[in-house]
Design brief:
CATH class of the largest domain in chain A: Alpha Beta
Strand content of chain A: 15-25%
Radius of gyration of chain B: 21 Å
CATH topology of the largest domain in chain A: Peroxisomal Thiolase, Chain A, domain 1
Number of strands of chain A: 16
Order of helices and strands of chain B: EHEEHEHHHEHEHEHEHEHEHHEE
Strand content of chain B: 15-25%
CATH topology of the largest domain in chain B: Peroxisomal Thiolase, Chain A, domain 1
Shape of chain B: globular
Number of domains of chain B: 3
Distance between the termini of chain A: 14 Å
Number of strands of chain B: 12
Oligomer: heterotrimer
Helix content of chain A: 25-40%
Order of helices and strands of chain A: EHEEHHEHEEHHHEHEHEHEHEHEHHEEEE
Helix content of chain B: 25-40%
Structural class of chain B: alpha/beta
Number of helices of chain A: 14
Chains: A alpha/beta, B alpha/beta, C mainly alpha
Largest interface: A-B, 92 and 99 residues
Shape of chain A: globular
Number of domains of chain A: 2
CATH class of the largest domain in chain B: Alpha Beta
Distance between the termini of chain B: 27 Å
CATH superfamily of the largest domain in chain B: Thiolase/Chalcone synthase
Strand order of the largest sheet of chain A: 7-4-8-9-1-10-16-15-11-12
Amino acid sequence: MRRRVVITGMGAITPLGHNVRETIEAQLQGRNGVGPIESFDASRFPTKFAAQVKNFDLARFIPDCRRWMHSGINSQFAAVAAQEALEHAGLLNDTRVDRNRFGVYLGSGEGIQDFHNLLSWIYQAYRRETRQLDTATFERGALSVFHPERESEQELHTTPAHLAAHFDLRGPNYNCLTACAASSQAVGEATELIRHGDADLMLVGGAHSMIHPFGVTGFNLLTALSTRNDAPEKASRPFDLYRDGFVLGEGAAMLVLEELEHAKRRGADILAEVTGYGSTADAFRVTDSHPDGRGAIACMKAALKDSRLNLSDIGYINAHGTSTKVNDSVETLAIKKVFGEQAYRIPVSSTKSMMGHLIAAAGAIELITCVEVLRRGVLPPTINYEMPDPECDLDYIPRTAREKRVQHALSNSFGFGGQNIALIVSRFSS
Amino acid sequence: MSTPSRRAVITGIGIISPIGLDAASYWHSLREGRSGIRPIQSFDASGLPVRIAGEIPHFNAKDYLEKEQRKSLRVMARTIQLAVAGAQRALDDGQVDKSKLDPTRFGVEFGAGLIATELNDLIEAACVSANCQPGRVDLEKWGEQGIPLIQPLWMLKYLPNMLACHVSILHDARGPNNSITESDVASLLALGEAYRILLRDQADFFLVGGAESKINPLSMVRQCLFEHLSRRNEEPTKACRPFDRWRDGLVLGEGAGVFVVEDLEHARRRGARIYAEIVGFGAAFDPGMRGDGLARAIDAALADAGIGPEEVDHVNAHGLSTPESDAWEARSLHKVFGSCSPPVPVFAAKSYIGNLGAGGGTTELAASVLAMSNNGPVPPTLNYEQADPDCPIEVLSREPRPMTRPHVVKVSFTQMGQCAAVVVRQWS
Amino acid sequence: MPTQDEIYSKVSATLVEALNVDEEDIKPTSTLQGDLGAESIDFLDIVFRLEREFGIKIPRGELFPESIFQGDPELVQDGRVTPKGLEELRAKMPFADLTKFEQNPEVGNLSNLFTVDLITRYIQGKLENGSQN
């Protein structure tokens, strides 16, 4: 009998709210988190809007936040969501649990580069006469203006390290960055660590913000972002015929995973059980998904096999649903290949229509959405779904939330580069 | 859930390092005691306080790719190219016939780090937007005129999951695929994860390792600002001296260390040569290198392997060569192995190649795996000249030493406290 | 104004660079995806290189329209482009030679329109228009 893994705490900070409750309630009201980019002047960028976290101030959440003084906003978001999740689980200051058996596995993004100083020194070190960069000039300049701590905080392992140090979590500590699949993969692999016995508790999730000049530049160059600047609130429209790219979101989402007996012993409130995890690669192309959706199909099948559930058990799918042409049609195809005729009976929605795409953190917030579906019996809608696309013909829960009692929900996450993750959460029953 | 009958064995080693571009030449250099630390040649480092590194002098990624695959090189930063090359060499070394592998049971796990942009990619965009006031870019100009001057595929060159992504595309590996981005402990965590996935029967065959290059102007500037780097610019081969009393900081290196790891039955069916078996893994966190985190990771790995410390031949150390890090590591090793008699000595491969960051753990471990399969001897740690009373361990130095016990423990950790340990058993 | 031959040879040099193919692999009728192995990111790269090579601006979607029919049932039915769809195609890609496609207007054959010759004619049109202004 393998060890069972349950969820006993959740936390989030998203474009829709500063905690799980606010975020979920906004989702169920079909509210939109997209607006003009405020954190920098994007007025001449191809894309001028994003789904941003509003009125964020770390000190309001964590009074002694010196540790994050030089951190990027990604790490600060992580701190807020982690604190909520731990508090929710009753583990913030619990001295009874063995902190050595309490690890961290994040799928968290990079910090934010010093855009202005980097480019200024590239400019100043460029020699027009030789058409070359004078590297030594760049080095001396950059050394004089870059801020050591801020540079250090961009590193990818700093986010999970801060959480572990601040909240005293001394078990295995990981960060994976598999693009848009990252935090789902973190949840899956952390589940496996608990099943195997490496830990009894894992804080898992993701944090990311690419709403900064380099991030928007990079995605704009790849023409991956929606450029619907005249109607940003309509821009994220997964599965709709007139979708034209994804909308960047930002934020963090964290969950506490716990071995079932451990949770029972300490009388924890069990929110749901992680029952299925599947992980595959497309092994096809750098950005295109395989046209037959082979990796997506394989990961959903693997998760179903892992969960030992039947196709008909799945009552809701939270889609990856990015609002790009290719993702949404290939994902639809893959769901149909996996579920056959039943696909048309399973409600599918993309909450990215409201929150935008949280990139590395997307999977974790979408898993929390699934847990809340199990708990509340209400499915969040896909907003902006107006004009059906013949290639996307499932039930996408258009525009308004719907009541439905669900026992098992599936969440998909697919990354640039071809990593595919599917997770299944189930209502807990002993 | 582990299937007890399954076992994970190492059957191929791919090394791209400052001292050799495949496993055989890497081993040869280790046997010769040849350091790969030298003055930086690939760019003008004269503006930096640190001008030495474990740089790979003659690396051409084209040598590792079929002609029709070379198109991808334009979207690969050097770090990614090193990974792809290392993976190819691992497959070569393992004499793997890819046509006989089941793609859906073929996984890829890489340790990876932050990849710095090549400055040249941004020159034109910088020049149209950054000339107004010092330290400020005119974002309107950047948005309107700058962005169109950047290559459209720019960002793809620098995404950390692209190591494992390109490897999976090149070799049609459709099984589990992960990119662990945990600084210096990344590739060891990746190895541990792949090992567990093999045991729980979700893959039969893995390319697993790590790669990183920080030998470029932007990464070097950043590292100079926040890492404790050795300033021994005048004597590069003496600069990296793990556990030695006069160590003064770490030396950056670059490279890739990739293993073929597969289920034992799978390896037997294809008639593979087996180097060693992975038998234990453990990980832990230690806030700020003060406590017992590293010792706990080792204890967990030993317990996972079902052995005691006295069954370990040597420890393949992290051996960063900074004063604090080595002292804490030595104390931690002493805690686990201190009561063993004869003592369990320590080998530090960084003394040859420097710190390969996310590629370090597996590249360093390869030295011990090669020693095991060659029936020893374990190479000496370079530059260990005077014992440090703060490092209560026996360091393998000066002379190669034959292996006398069947296990090696490899440890890696980060300066923020993430620790991992892997136990490898000699194959017989 | 460069001649058509000059344009063609610059286009094929661009493709050699972008797609890492040999010059002798490139013929006017070569299709970018089928014959030369281009994938979607390559189209971005090719456009970027052509802009630099010829000093022109190629608006997004003009040379390589990403989704010509948006799944509109008036333009595509049962996987085939309707007469109205063909009109739309002519309007969006006046530089394309549709004679062959019209014989069997399956959506799956659309990618065959994107040939080296098509790029050459597009660039020629661009340069001619530019010199008139």
